[in-house]
Amino acid sequence: MLAQDLRPEEIFRRDRATGFPLFGSQRLLITGVPTLQRFGNDLRTIMGQRTSATVMTRLGYDTGLAAAMALADMYEFDSPEEWLKSFKVLLPATGMAVERDSQIHFDPENKTLRYTGIWEKSFEAQVWSMFTGGASDKPVCHVLSGIVSGFFTAILGKDVLVHELSCKAQGHDYCTFEARPMEEWGEDPLKIHEPLDEDWLNDEIHRLQKELKQSREVLEKRDQELQRLKTGPEKNRHGIVFRSPEMGKIVELAEIAAPSNSTVLVQGESGTGKELVARFIHKASQRGDEPFVAINCAAIPHTLIESELFGHLKGSFTDARADKKGLLVEAGQGTIFMDEVGELGMEVQAKLLRALQQREVRPLGGLKTVPIQARIIAAANQDLREMVEQGAFRQDLFYRLSVFPLLIPPLRQRREDILILARHFLSRLDPSHPGFTPEVVRRMQAYHWPGNIRELENCVEYAYILSSREPIHMRHLPISMAEKPRDIFDDLAGDFPTPRELVRRYARHVLQHTEGNKTQAARLMGVSPVTLWRYLNQEAET
Ligand SMILES: [Zn+2]
């Protein structure tokens, strides 16, 4: 999961039985800003400014810590950075503030963090100016500082403290803050962990503290946030929706190939969208306004394929009741897309080769040849080169077709695209559908998608029909998907490797999957290349 893919309305939900607002599975309490103002004032009066600031910060700290852990339970983040960045995405949905201009220096390996940024519209600064008037001599956003401290502490795995450097309540345009590990600030100036002097705390404050800890304004600015997230960095070019660099490369190559007249060979597993890429090339070429003729070579009986492609004259065989132009000619100045070209028989392959070499066809039963002007895009879901080696496909035809080869990776090798495609298909069915639950997102991202994009599209449509405008739950998924994946430890049987050995085997497994590409493997595992290197090279424990 990437931070930018989080959708607050999928995280802040309502319990169907009670109507209570929920954050993941945690119950939330909606409290108005005036309540907090009164609480803050009372606290300052009873305890003085310094201690009340500490209480408010501690309150935020526990909330932030719990929120970070709950979020990690909901989603598998691609990396600790993405987990860290998720705070900024979710902050507006809590009604507390909007963060901008963040500068992040984060090294999860060495547990170092320096995070600076700006809070706009902090609720605490707003409360101050609404009810107190005048400029404060100190920053006032204590709960907010505490929440960010707690949230980052969970991620870094050691204490982080946020200092508010300047505050809107002091008369500035906005608040600025800086987060660092606690040790870098010197002692714990806000006593986040130390017990407070009991004298300061009467029962009433305990009660209010508990109440405030759970309080949130959750559903405000929901539409605003939704709009903001909709314009994410995903790309849609002529219907090809993607974010992965792998697919970006394919689109880039297709754009380069489009204006030429070269024959293109699109290869990829079934359901990866080969025809979409062919249409993209057609549209982006000068032939874009001419016909796009598609033929699936596997769907037409062997006896008819010749006349489909090359045409026939009346009476050339029993069923030939009239002259027929072949598709190669019918495509005119346009593009002919020949899918599953690996299914062509040897005889047709020979004729196709001749037609491509001479740029003309002779219809069945005819003597005169007709010129071909169309551009040819072929596609196959088998590895044609392998078929050539096995003698099942003509080598000369293979070279003639693969002037410009494109290999579309299967969906499981570009997991970044799964969620945006799923959302794309869902919004095409219903733009205002409430989306997927976190469990479903996790399942979709972990699933291996043997049927690729077509299977994903069918799955979304199936779930959409069952969900009847509710968020899509696990129970709405097709059975093939809802099944729990097999336990990965089944294969270990009586073998009990040490955790280090297990990590080493796992790293090798992922590396095999990426065909030795270490950067890609590290990205899949959510670790740095250095960590991957360490995994691979660690010696077995003795
Ligand atoms: Zn402030």
TrEMBL record:
<dbReference type="GO" id="GO:0043565">
    <property type="term" value="F:sequence-specific DNA binding"/>
</dbReference>
<dbReference type="Pfam" id="PF06505">
    <property type="entry name" value="XylR_N"/>
</dbReference>
<dbReference type="Pfam" id="PF02830">
    <property type="entry name" value="V4R"/>
</dbReference>
<dbReference type="InterPro" id="IPR002197">
    <property type="entry name" value="HTH_Fis"/>
</dbReference>
<keyword id="KW-0547">Nucleotide-binding</keyword>
<dbReference type="Pfam" id="PF02954">
    <property type="entry name" value="HTH_8"/>
</dbReference>
<dbReference type="InterPro" id="IPR002078">
    <property type="entry name" value="Sigma_54_int"/>
</dbReference>
<dbReference type="GO" id="GO:0005524">
    <property type="term" value="F:ATP binding"/>
</dbReference>
<keyword id="KW-0804">Transcription</keyword>
<dbReference type="GO" id="GO:0006355">
    <property type="term" value="P:regulation of DNA-templated transcription"/>
</dbReference>
<dbReference type="InterPro" id="IPR058031">
    <property type="entry name" value="AAA_lid_NorR"/>
</dbReference>
<dbReference type="InterPro" id="IPR003593">
    <property type="entry name" value="AAA+_ATPase"/>
</dbReference>
<keyword id="KW-0175">Coiled coil</keyword>
<keyword id="KW-0067">ATP-binding</keyword>
<dbReference type="InterPro" id="IPR010523">
    <property type="entry name" value="XylR_N"/>
</dbReference>
<feature type="coiled-coil region">
    <location>
        <begin position="198"/>
        <end position="229"/>
    </location>
</feature>
<protein>
    <submittedName>
        <fullName>DNA-binding transcriptional response regulator, NtrC family, contains REC, AAA-type ATPase, and a Fis-type DNA-binding domains</fullName>
    </submittedName>
</protein>
<dbReference type="Pfam" id="PF25601">
    <property type="entry name" value="AAA_lid_14"/>
</dbReference>
<dbReference type="InterPro" id="IPR025662">
    <property type="entry name" value="Sigma_54_int_dom_ATP-bd_1"/>
</dbReference>
<dbReference type="InterPro" id="IPR024096">
    <property type="entry name" value="NO_sig/Golgi_transp_ligand-bd"/>
</dbReference>
<keyword id="KW-0238">DNA-binding</keyword>
<feature type="domain" description="Sigma-54 factor interaction">
    <location>
        <begin position="240"/>
        <end position="465"/>
    </location>
</feature>
<dbReference type="InterPro" id="IPR004096">
    <property type="entry name" value="V4R"/>
</dbReference>
<dbReference type="InterPro" id="IPR025944">
    <property type="entry name" value="Sigma_54_int_dom_CS"/>
</dbReference>
<dbReference type="InterPro" id="IPR009057">
    <property type="entry name" value="Homeodomain-like_sf"/>
</dbReference>
<dbReference type="InterPro" id="IPR027417">
    <property type="entry name" value="P-loop_NTPase"/>
</dbReference>
<keyword id="KW-0805">Transcription regulation</keyword>
<dbReference type="Pfam" id="PF00158">
    <property type="entry name" value="Sigma54_activat"/>
</dbReference>
